[in-house]
Amino acid sequence: MTDKTKITLTVNGTGHAIDVAPRKTLADALREDCGLTGTHLGCEHGVCGACTITVDGAPVRSCLMFAVQAEGADIRTVEGLANGPDLSPLQQFFIEEHALQCGFCTPGFLMLIDGTLKQSPDITDDELTEILSSNLCRCTGYRNIIRAARRALDHARTTTEPAA
Fold it and tell me: What is the tens place of the pLDDT at every residue in 138-151?
């Protein structure tokens, strides 16, 4: 029998008091214990980026972090991007640029872009393209994802409203 630890995760501004095994990943806790299934699991080795979320504003592969490590942190998942029924500018740019097809990788890309632009608002196009290459997409060929990310970058530079 595995002992469980009581923790509280703050996700998208809401506290989730849960009991988890010490080795349960943050990705599994978000999906199974918090009911937030927007965070997708792909490789479960930190390679594909489908499980990317932000922890204290930084993009993190949630399959590589234990849930107990995230207690006390500010966690943001793809569910936290929209404001009720209103999509964030970043989400709208993904739609307008046709930056998704099957959608499996989309939450990870959205959170990678969101965290990157918040951490590095002066990032260059080349640096942004390099960072985006760390997530895998089998459908779009990346061009449309890069266009949507650049629009989010331009939006962040020209407005006080956050792109995500």
Answer: 887 799 999 999 99
Domain 89-158 in CATH 1.10.150.120? yes
User: Binning pLDDT at 50, 70 and 90, where does residue 161 land?
Assistant: low
Give the separation between CA 11 and CA 130, rounded to whole angstroms.
28
Give dist(CA 67, CA 56) in Å, integer. 14
For residue 4, the tally of other CB atoms under 10 A from its CB is 12
Query: What CATH class does 5-80 carry?
Result: alpha beta
Among the residue ranges 11-20, 111-120, 139-148, the one predicted with the least confidence is: 139-148
Domain borders along the chain are: 5-80, 89-158
Opening angle at CA 50, ends 162 and 75, nearest 5? 50
* Separation of alpha carbons 54 and 150, rounded Å: 19
What is the four-CA torsion angle of 146, 148, 153, 158, rounded to 10 degrees? 150
Tell me the whole-structure pTM to 2 decimals.
Answer: 0.93
